[in-house]
Amino acid sequence: MVSSPAYDPPAADPSAAPTGKPAAVQHRGTIVAGCLAVCLAQIGLVLPAAINGVMQRSLQTSGAELTWITDAFLVPAAVLALTFGVVGDLYGRKKLLVGGALLAAVGYLVSATSDSAAQLITGQALSGIGAAALFPASLAVIIAGTPTPAARARGLASWTTALSLGALIAPLLSGTVVEHTSFHWAFAATGVLAVATAAVAWWLTAESSAPDGRSLDWPGQITIALAMLALLYGIIQGPTDGWGSVTVVGCFVVAAVMLGAFIAAESRSKSPMLRLELFRNPAFAASAAMAVIGMFGFLGGAYDLSIRLGVIHHQSPLRVAVSFLIIQAVTPLIWPLLVRLLQKVGPGPMLVAGFVSLAVAQLWLRAVPMHETGIPALLGPLVLNGIGFGLVVAAITAAAVNVVPLHLTGMAAATTSLVRDLGQTLGPAIVGAVALATATDQLTGSLRSAALTPAEQGTATAVLDGGGPLALHTADLGPLSAKIAPLTERALTDSYGDVLLLTAAACATAAVIAAVFLGIRPRAAAPASTEGSRA
Predict the structure, then answer these.
(1) Which of 58, 82, 231, 376 is 20 to 30 Å from 520 by CA-CA measure?
(2) How many other CB atoms sit within 10 Å of the CB of residue 374?
(3) Which residue, 99, 51, 45, 97, is CA-closest to 71?
(4) CA torsion sign, 243 to 247 to 249 to 254?
């Protein structure tokens, strides 16, 4: 997942509260605490990718529940970051940093002790709220605590490195731990890190705030949160509850109404969380559309890979982790080259190349035979995926801020991050919904024509109706499991393979939109230092 926080960070704060420590020590301590906090937030975001298969088998989750385990973290991290940024400015960023880490720790405790999908989803939601506070607060304390441009540049570089490090640590942490014990210990280990982060932030961080001119936009925050939750619930539950069910249709209606209420609230607000006038600029509106569509394609493809390896083919957590590690490792390795490209050719060509690379990588992955699950067979599309991801990460915010007036660049960057994160929350939801609906239809026909006794057909159909195709694929039904295994594997292989056509098409569409920016060059040095990788 990609991000600089959906928050317009302040300049250095000369009124930052002293801690009694020498200034140099205080500045270093603040940077250390901020970096540790953003690393923690990023670990939590990537953590489930390598262990989706183990969680699904351990808790016997349905496909919808498995999607919620991921999106329960992503949704609050996306929709609350702007508001938490303002909360930190008003009441103190150190308090927000400590509070966010402690709330994340509580969420990981809930997840680590979970014996049901509902409890795990609840824990993920709490951790996601904590991460929503950590992303903007970690950046704000570093900017406010660095008094000179040179020190600030070093602090931002450290923050970006920590963000990338979190993306690298997460699959290794979850994959290695769960390889030898239950998935609960992956969340427990992250919870220990969260407690340590809170302690370090309390001890080392200098308090700062900037309340002048800042106010909370509660109507905007509430309406956008309700709109996103209703939309995601309708998408995720559609295959299970039925697309024409009262609940699902009602969710889509609520989402539309709340989105309209959000637009109305933002148009009247004195301090809107989203400046709607930015979208009157056709180039910025196109940039926002590119971010939503392209990031849906990227994270949807990553979620598809996780299900393919971990759930359908029961790959070990460590082997799944290595695949995601390859994708994540490419960006840090080529980052100096990406920064130079951004300065020399501008964001437009990089975005076109990046999204085309992502589209080709996903089509390449689809072309790899499903029985080929080893790293050698997957290495090509994984590396190309990482290259495309790096190109997009380096350029996506620069493309947006370069098409608005200078005084709106901060809000443009924050808005781009927000819509990008919203696009990423749609990735697992839409991919899961389309793939599961397709697999269910295929399995329904296959079971009818299979050589099963009436009792066996009844049992298989009951599991399919109750938990969906993923539950049927992993359920222990005795001898019946061996009979239906080829049917479930074929249905899931076909459906999750075909949905890569959708994610590749989304990336290709984003590339076409990005072509609008081919002639745009950055005003100055690229603002790449506040970009990081989430996947």
Answers:
(1) 82
(2) 10
(3) 45
(4) negative
- Give CA–CA dist 131/123, Å, rounded: 12
Report the alpha-carbon distance of residue 411 to residue 399 in Å, rounded. Answer: 14
Phi-psi region of 211 (alpha: psi -120 to 50; beta: other; left: phi over 0): alpha
163 and 122 in contact (C-beta within 8 Å)? no
Indicate the burial class of 351 (C-beta count within 10 angstroms; 0-12, 13-18, 19 or more).
buried
SS3 182: coil
Task: Count Cβ atoms below 10 Å from residue 133 Cβ, excluding itself.
Answer: 31
Could you read off the pLDDT of 293-326 as tens digits, one per residue?
Answer: 999 999 999 999 999 999 898 889 999 999 999 9
Of 501, 496, 94, 117, nearest to 308 (Cα)?
A: 496
How far is residue 99's CA from residue 202's CA, in Å, rounded to a whole number?
10
Give the C-alpha separation, 137 to 34, whole Å. 8
Quote the pTM value. Answer: 0.85
HSE of 482 in the Cβ direction (CA atoms, 13 Å)? 2
CB atoms within 10 A of CB 399: 28
- Quickly count: other Cβ atoms within 10 Å of residue 372's Cβ: 10
Residue 3 parent element (H or E): strand 2-3
Question: What pLDDT digit, counting tens, does each position of 387-446 carry?
Answer: 999 999 888 877 777 777 776 776 777 787 788 888 889 999 999 999 999 999 999 999
Q: Which residue type does 61 have?
A: T
Element (H, E) at 131: helix 117-145
